[in-house]
Every structure is written in structure tokens, then in C-alpha cells.
Amino acid sequence: MSARTRYAHAGDVDIAYRVFGEGPTEVVAGGFSDTKRKPFTAKDIRFTTKHIPRHELPAADVLYAIVLGVPEGEIVIRSLGSSLRLYSQPIESVELVGSKSPVTWTREEDALRVKLPEGAKVKHAVVLRIKPKG
Question: Cα–Cα distance between 59 and 106 in angstroms, integer?
């Protein structure tokens, strides 16, 4: 499966999320500035949403978290901690886009913590689909 096919859901979005992302890598402004910054890491995460119409499910915004590096171990998404108001809905599920294997996740006050399935083949980035309880 190509990266374009695997991550197509995250690119087919309706609106941006309340925050663009989190992580330590500073982005340099301006055109042709890709080479002027350090490489992204698994701690660099970007967010986007996709609205699900009422006729498909109860109306909700599915959140996509795009991890810009290859994670080693647990993915920690601080912006989605239960004590923050950035994503106030309870979470029903977290899925690894492009995989049928379930992920293990917990939502704590300080972060959403995600463990990828054993043997998940990740070469460039990870896209997580986060569905609210509806």
C-alpha cells in the first residue's frame, strides 16, 4: 500500500483542528526553508479533523494526529490529555490508519498515550484516527 493511499483519509479534511500541532522542532518561516530546520521527530505531531455527517454516524469530528517521525515505543500526545479543553469529548477509539491491527491506548490527564501494534511497519510517519464517543 502506498503512503498516498494509506494516509488519504488524513488529507481529505474539512477543517483544521484548534491547534496546528505540538513538538520540539521549530519550523522556519518562508519559502524553500525545509533545509533550514532540523528533521521532524516522533514528538512532532500535527492535527486535522474530518466532519462525519449525521446520516453516517452521530455528527462528530474525527481527529487525525499525524506523527511526523517514526516512533520508538509509545506515542505521547500531550495536547489530548483529559485535563485540557482542546478535545473535551470522551474518546471511543484510536486507530492506526492503514492497519487492521488494534492499537493500545490510554487517555490520562497529561496526555493520550498510544502503543502501535506489534510488527507495525512504519517508514516515514504515523497517522492516528481518533474517534469521539457519540
Answer: 24
SS3 15: strand
pTM of the model: 0.76
What is the total count of domains within the chain? 1
Q: How far apart are CA 41 and CA 23, in angstroms?
A: 8
DSSP-based three-state secondary structure for 8: helix
Report residue 41 CA to chain centroid gap.
14
pLDDT (tens digit, 9 = 90+) per residue, 112-129?
999 998 877 787 889 999
The C-alpha atoms of residue 104 and residue 28 are separated, in whole angstroms, by: 34
* CA separation, residue 61 to residues 14, 35, 64, 91 (Å): 9, 34, 10, 11
Domain of residue 127, CATH code: 2.60.40.1180
- As given in the structure block, the three cell numbers for residue 83 are 485535563
Q: d(Cα 115, Cα 89) in Å, to the nearest integer?
A: 21
